[in-house]
Amino acid sequence: MEFVIIVVGLLLVIIMVSKETRSRQQELEKQLQAVRYEFTTRVAKLELSQYQQQPGVEVVRFDLSGQDVQNAFTGSGARAWDYIDHCFADGIGTGSHRISDNQITIERTNKKGRYELQLKQYYFDSVREMIPAETTLSKRHLRITADVKQEGSSQILRFVFKGESQNVLDEKDYVVFSPDWEPIELVFTIHSTESSYLRIDSLSVLDVPGSVHIRNLKLLEKQQA
Fold first, then answer.
1. Residue-wise pLDDT tens digits, 76-110
2. Per-residue confidence (pLDDT) for residue 94, from 0 to 100
3. Rounded to 5 degrees, what angle do the CA atoms 58, 61, 66 make?
4. Could you tell me the maximum CA-CA distance found in the chain, to the nearest angstrom?
5. For the segment 32-74, what is each residue's pLDDT rounded down to a tens digit?
6. Global pTM?
7. Per-residue model confidence as pLDDT tens digits over 15-32
8. Burial 37-53 (b: 16+ CB within 10 A, else e)
9. CA–CA separation, 39 vs 47, rounded Å?
10. CA 86 to CA 126: how far, in whole Å?
11. How far is CA 149 from CA 24, 89, 176, in A?
């Protein structure tokens, strides 16, 4: 009987220590995301200032408020890339997305991996499924604008431009830290010698269930006047 009491007591201690450790880890993760939020917003403002100084005229390549956007994105779960070990981390992200009233909602049901949205609608001479290659240009200069907020848990949105070869042409992370709407503006420079597309990843979710909301999403390209 005494042995059972001792074992039960030890188990209770282990559970309490485990809970305390998880709590400290979650608090540290929140602090790290807060620091990353401050850093990414400062960098984004600097890059936007440089973009605005470039001559040219912007043209819209995608607008979430446009027509027939219900099927503009395809969504799926995937593993997240580990930039330290240079390999895919274990665990596939699970979740879902929906589009309504000029807003994308990504709902996450686990913390691992990422849930990715691939944009398959671009406005050029006609509606294209990819950004077409352009041999007369060496680079495209792009800007993404939107409003974002999180519900239930902060997380990272990664905006990635990938070439038809699956090479990453440019990418930016933005920590969605606030439960209130906040505007974001991110700029990108990509090589134009191959077709490309935009992917939006939801990753580094601190708690589940959690969701991220994106509204008024636009993709613009600055062209020489």
1. 999 988 777 778 888 999 999 999 999 999 999 99
2. 95
3. 115
4. 86
5. 667 767 777 788 888 888 888 888 899 999 999 988 898 999 9
6. 0.83
7. 454 555 656 666 666 676
8. beebeeebeebbeebee
9. 12
10. 38
11. 25, 26, 6
Contact predicate 191/137, CB 8 Å: no
Q: DSSP labels for the chain?
A: -HHHHHHHHHHHHHHHHHHHHHHHHHHHHHHHHHHHHHHHHHHHHHHHHHHHHS--EEEEEEETTSSS-TTSEEEEEEEEEETTTTEEEEEE--EEEEEETTEEEEEES-SSSEEEEEE--EESSSEESSBPP-TT-SEEEEEEEEEEEEESS-EEEEEEEEETTS-EEEEEEEEE--SS-EEEEEEEEEE-SS-EEEEEEEE--SSSSEEEEEEEEEEEEEE--
Q: What is the pLDDT of residues 122-163, one digit of tens each?
A: 999 999 999 999 888 889 999 999 999 999 988 999 999 999
- Please say whether the beta carbons of 187 and 143 come within 8 A: yes
Q: What's the pLDDT score for residue 18?
A: 52
